[in-house]
Amino acid sequence: MRDYKKYDTWKIAHELVREIYIISENFPKSELFGLTSQIRRAAVSIPTNIAEGCGRSTDKEFARFIEISIGSTNETEYLLLLSCDLGFTSEDKITDLNATLNLTRQKLIQLRKKLLNNN
Predict the structure, then answer these.
(1) Nearest C-alpha neighbor of 105 from the set 23, 35, 16
(2) To the nearest 10°, the Cα dihedral for 42, 103, 97, 71?
(3) What is the spatial distance between Cα 3 and Cα 5, in angstroms, rounded to a whole number?
(4) Cα separation of 2 and 20, whole Å?
(5) Residues 67 and 53 sit within 8 Å (Cβ to Cβ)
(6) What are phi and psi of 79, to 5 degrees?
(7) Which of 13, 28, 69, 92 could cross-link with 49 by S-S, CB 3.0 to 4.6 Å?
(8) CA nearest 37: which of 46, 27, 50?
């Protein structure tokens, strides 16, 4: 079984989640069960699926969970854009997060490719 904590991609995604929680803390209280919850769940899904995939027995199964993480990265990116457009946060605050999301997505794609080439 793989140790998810050894993957740089997981480490980056974990830090991203922490930052999303900090930023979303300032969203309107009326959004607690709306956008705040959604953006947090999408972000948490990234490292969570990496961790869950590490528990799978084959590279192909692990790659499937990496694909889900990639989708969650895209979802998080959109939700950050929406939160900015709605005035819940600023472009300055999401610029670094978007760079981290892009890095995470690139690393996930590379990992998926590597896993699928092992089969």
Answers:
(1) 16
(2) -20
(3) 5
(4) 26
(5) no
(6) -65, -30
(7) 69
(8) 27
Write the DSSP symbol of residue 28. Answer: -
pLDDT exceeds cutoff 70 at 119: no
CA distance readout (Å), 9 to 25, 73, 81, 91, 92: 24, 12, 22, 24, 24
Residues 6+ apart with CB under 8 A from 29: none
pLDDT tens, residue by residue, 63-96: 999 999 999 999 999 999 999 999 999 999 999 9
- Give residue limits of the domains in the chain: 4-118
Q: Which residues of 46-77 are buried (b: 16+ CB within 10 A; e: fewer)?
A: bbbbbbbbbeeeebeebbbbbebbbebbebbb
Q: Are 66 and 108 in contact (CB under 8 A)?
A: yes
